[in-house]
Design goal:
The complex is a heterodimer of chains A (264) and B (232). With 264 residues, chain A is mainly α. Chain A folds into two domains: 1-122; 142-264, no CATH class. Chain A has helices spanning 2-37, 43-77, 81-84, 91-121, 124-143, 146-179, 184-219, 224-259. In chain A, α2 crosses α6 (146-179), α4 (91-121) crosses α6 and α6 packs parallel to α8 (224-259). The two termini of chain A are 26 Å apart. Chain B is an alpha/beta fold and 232 residues long. In chain B, 35% of the residues lie in helices and 27% in strands. Chain B has helices at 43-50, 70-75, 91-101, 107-116, 130-142, 160-173, 187-190, 211-218, 222-229; strands at residues 3-14, 17-28, 32-36, 58-63, 76-79, 148-152, 179-184, 196-201, 204-210. Classes of the chains: A mainly alpha (264), B alpha/beta (232). The A-B interface holds A 1, 4, 7-8, 12, 15, 79-83, 85-90, 181, 259-263 and B 14-15, 48, 51-55, 70-71, 73-74, 76, 78, 80, 82-86, 88, 97, 100-102.
C-alpha cells in the first residue's frame, strides 16, 4: 500500500514542482546567455533575468515548505481526508508516504538549485577555478583517511534524518492544531513553537550536566586525526539527537491520528 | 456474526453539543436501512464514527464485530455528505485510484453507470458542477462490491430524474448479503426502497422498525410518520 500511496503522492506534488524546476532551468539558461554576451545594452534585461532567477530559487524553497504543510493538512485533515482515511491503509503508512515524498522533493529541489547555478556559471574560467579548488580539496580530504568518508557519510545521513524529522515535526504540530475545533492554525503554530521550547529545555538539561566533559573532550583534540574523530563524534550525536526527536514526533502524530482523529 | 453494524452505549460529545447520547443499535445484514432524522440529529456523526473519521467519546461501534480499522475499511463503502475528490484529477484517474486501493472495485460497473448518467470520464473534476461531482462520487462508491454501504445524503444534490436512476442502481447493484444504510431527510424519495427505518433525533434513537410494521400497525407511510414524530 505504501507504494500506491507514494505513486499518488508523487503525482499530486509533481504537478507543482516540475514546472517550477523547468522555469528555474530556463532562467538559468537565459542568464547564461546574457553573461556570455555581456553587452552594455543588455545590462537591464540581464539584471531583471538575474533577479527573477533568485526569486525562483527563493520561491522553490518556500514552496517546498508550503507543499509539505499543505499536502499533509489538505489530504488528511480536510475534505480529502474523508477519502484518505477510508482507504484500507494503516494510518502510519499515510504519514510515511507524506514524509518520504517531502524528503524526495527537498533533495530534488536542492539538486536542481545547484545544477541551475552550475549551468549558469559554467565557462572556461570557472572550470579552471573549480579544478584548482578540487585539486586542493582532494589531497586534503585524502589526508583524513577513512575518517573523511565517515564524515561525508554521516553528513548525508544527518541531512536525510534532519529533513524527515523536520517534516514530521510539522505534521505533529498540524495534527495537534487539528484537535482544536476553533483555532486550528493558532494551536498548530503554538504546538510547533512549544516543541522547540521543549527541545531546548531537554537539550540544556542534558548539556549542562555534560558540559565540562564535552569541553575537555574537544580541548584535547589537537592533531588532525583527533579533530576528524571529534567531528565524527559530533555528527553522530547530532544524528542521534535528530533521530530521537524525530521518532517522538512520528509516534505522537500516529497516535493522535489513530486515537484522536476528529475530522470536521 | 449476524449484525453488520452495532452500537453499544455509543456516546459522542462535541464541545458544547452532545451529538450521540448513549445509542444502542443493531443493524442486521442484507437490509436497506434508512437513517432518518432532521438536520443536526446525529445521522452524519454516527456514519462518521462507523468510518473511524471521528472517535467515540465512550461506548463502541462495531462493523461486522470489529472496531473501525483497516479490516472494516475494506468492506465499507462510504459516501460522505461532502465532496472529497481532488480537483485536478479526471474521472478516469479517480477510477484508477479506486481500483488501486479497493480490491472489490468493479471498473466495468463504474464505466457503465457513467455512460448511463452521461458523465464524460476524461473530464477533470474541476470543470464539473456540484451535482455532477456528487453523481461521480456516488458511482465510485456504488461500484464497489462492499458488504456495507454507508450513504450520507446520497441524493441531496442531484436532480429528480437522476435521483430515480440512482435509487434504482442502489437496489439493482447490491447483492443480497450487503447492507445499505442511507441517511437522508428526503424520505418520500427513498421510502420505496427501504426495508427498515431508524428515526434519530438529538442524538437519541426514537424508533427502529421495519417499514412493513409501520405500514401495518400505524397504517401510514414512513413519510407521514416522520412528519408526525418530528412535528415542530
Amino acid at each position: 500500500m505504501l507504494r500506491k500511496l507514494l505513486k499518488y503522492e508523487i503525482k499530486a506534488t509533481s504537478r507543482i514542482y516540475l514546472p517550477m524546476y523547468a522555469l528555474l532551468i530556463v532562467f538559468a539558461l537565459i542568464n547564461k546567455f546574457f553573461i556570455a554576451v555581456n553587452a552594455d545594452y543588455l545590462k537591464i534585461p540581464m539584471m531583471i533575468a538575474m533577479t527573477v532567477f533568485v526569486v525562483i530559487i527563493v520561491g522553490i524553497c518556500v514552496m517546498t515548505l508550503v507543499v509539505t504543510i499543505q499536502r499533509f493538512n489538505k489530504n488528511l485533515l480536510t475534505d480529502e481526508g474523508y477519502l484518505s482515511f477510508t482507504l484500507p491503509v494503516k494510518v502510519h503508512t499515510h504519514v510515511d508516504a507524506k514524509m518520504i515524498v517531502a524528503l524526495l522533493w527537498s533533495v530534488l529541489s536542492a539538486i536542481v538549485g545547484v545544477v541551475s547555478v552550475f549551468v549558469m556559471a559554467i565557462n572556461e574560467d570557472t572550470i579552471q577555478k573549480w579544478s584548482k579548488f578540487m585539486s586542493e580539496l582532494i589531497p586534503a580530504f585524502n589526508s583524513l583517511g577513512a575518517a573523511g568518508y565517515v564524515i561525508v557519510l554521516e553528513g548525508i545521513i544527518l541531512v536525510v534524518v534532519a529533513t524527515l524529522s523536520a517534516a514530521v515535526k510539522i505534521y505533529a504540530a498540524i495534527t495537534i492544531g487539528n484537535m482544536s475545533s476553533k483555532h486550528r492554525l493558532l494551536v498548530g503554530l503554538g504546538a510547533y513553537l512549544g516543541f522547540g521550547v521543549i527541545e531546548q529545555i531537554i537539550v540544556s538539561i542534558f548539556g549542562s550536566s555534560m558540559s565540562s566533559r564535552i569541553e575537555i573532550y574537544f580541548r584535547n583534540l589537537d592533531t588532525i586525526a583527533s579533530k576528524a574523530a571529534g567531528a565524527e563524534t559530533a555528527l553522530l550525536w547530532l544524528i542521534v539527537y535528530t533521530l530521537i526527536f524525530g521518532a517522538l514526533y512520528y509516534f505522537l502524530t500516529n497516535w493522535m491520528l489513530k486515537k484522536k482523529l476528529n475530522l470536521e | 456474526m449476524e449484525n453488520i453494524l452495532e452500537c453499544q452505549n455509543l456516546v459522542k460529545f462535541f464541545p458544547g453539543c452532545l451529538a450521540l447520547n448513549s445509542v444502542n443499535l443493531a443493524v442486521p445484514k442484507g437490509k436497506i436501512v434508512g437513517l432518518l432524522g432532521p438536520n443536526g440529529s446525529g445521522k452524519s456523526t454516527m456514519i462518521k464514527l462507523a468510518n473511524g473519521l471521528i472517535t467515540p467519546t465512550s461506548g463502541k461501534i462495531l462493523i461486522n464485530g470489529m472496531e473501525p480499522g483497516i479490516e472494516t475499511k475494506k468492506i465499507v463503502s462510504y459516501l460522505p455528505e461532502r465532496t472529497y475528490l481532488n480537483d485536478w484529477m479526471t474521472v478516469n484517474n479517480m477510477i484508477e485510484f479506486f481500483c488501486d486501493f479497493y480490491t472489490d472495485f468493479n471498473k466495468q460497473k463504474a464505466y457503465d453507470m457513467l455512460q448511463r448518467l452521461g458523465v464524460d470520464p476524461s473530464l477533470r473534476l474541476k470543470t464539473m458542477s456540484k451535482g455532477t461531482k456528487e453523481k461521480v462520487q456516488l458511482i465510485l462508491v456504488m461500484s464497489r462490491e462492499a458488504e456495507l454501504y454507508l450513504l450520507d445524503e446520497p441524493i441531496g444534490g442531484v436532480d429528480p430524474a437522476a435521483r430515480d436512476y440512482i435509487l434504482d442502481t442502489i437496489i439493482g447493484n447490491y447483492n443480497e448479503n450487503a447492507t445499505i444504510i442511507i441517511s437522508t431527510h428526503l424520505i418520500s424519495d427513498v421510502e420505496k426502497i427501504l426495508d427498515e427505518v431508524i428515526f434519530i433525533n438529538k442524538g437519541n434513537i426514537v424508533l427502529a422498525s421495519t417499514v412493513d410494521d409501520i405500514r401495518e400497525h400505524e397504517n401510514k407511510s414512513v413519510d407521514a410518520l416522520f412528519r408526525e414524530v418530528f412535528k415542530c
